[in-house]
Amino acid sequence: MFLVLFLSFSVHAQTYHELVDKAMSCALKDSLPQAEQLFMQALRMDPKNVRNSLLLSNLGTVQKRLGKTDEAIESYTMALNITPYVTTILLNRGTLYLDKGVLDKAYLDFCNVIDLSPENIEARLYRAYIYMEQRKYDEARIDYNVIVAKDAKHKSAHIGLVLLDQYQGKMVSARDGLNLLINDYPSDESLLKMRANLELAEDSPEAARADLEAATRIAPHDAELYCQLGDVFLMLKKKKEAKKAFEKAVQLGIPRSAMNDRFKSCK
């Protein structure tokens, strides 16, 4: 009797592991629907297996990649019911809640990650974003500063600090922070656009023009850049240059009908 039971268990366990291995192979080959079905089949076969937390986490990731957000959240939640203190699963579920705009649940997941791992950069970054959305700027600054203390060159955290300075009216500090970022990342046109917006807020359209022109040299196919540059030319009463910039934006794909008011301003 014991031998028969042992053999039955061995065949059963082997089948479960074979399904999981096949599911992982399919996932790695981007055969995601097959991977999802195989993971679910393994779960039904052995619902009490100690590996099911990892299996559910992998199933959630497959469902996430398939765009099945609600199903992925459910899979991650089931995984956390088995092993509630796994930071990777909490992060995965938190980011899905964030994508759905369910900020309160995302916030709780990121807080739990930070409780488990206080210097977790990813969780701090996401939580700072939520604080920014809620206009809790002092709390966001704490998270960004923790990130920068751990990684002095963390680009996203420094951008967050620049935005915080702008929101809190610390324009000199914001400009200084942007200057340092542009010095570190001279080929990032988005930073030049940020500085141009800051310069416009400070009523310095000529400086904004210089930054936007530099940005177009880095990203010559960015239609929105030319729209913004044209608007600045209009502020500077340079209608010929503005029209040329708007024409470039149309050439790059913006419908002319969407630019009618701008073209009228060039006359």
Characterization of this structure:
- The chain is an all-alpha fold and 267 residues long.
- The chain contains 15 helices and no strands.
- Helix 3 runs antiparallel to helix 4 (69-82), helix 4 (69-82) packs antiparallel against helix 5 and helix 13 (223-235) runs antiparallel to helix 14 (239-251).
- It starts with a helix and ends with a helix.
- Mean pLDDT is 91; it is low at 1-13.
Quick description:
The chain contains 15 helices and no strands. It has about 270 residues and is an all-alpha fold.
Features:
78% helix; 267 residues; disordered N terminus; elongated; single chain; 15 helices
Task: Give a topology summary.
Layout: H1 2-28, H2 32-45, H3 52-65, H4 69-82, H5 87-99, H6 103-116, H7 121-133, H8 137-150, H9 155-167, H10 171-184, H11 189-201, H12 205-218, H13 223-235, H14 239-251, H15 260-265
Helix pairs in contact: 1-2, 2-3, 3-4, 4-5, 5-6, 6-7, 7-8, 7-9, 8-9, 9-10, 10-11, 11-12, 12-13, 13-14
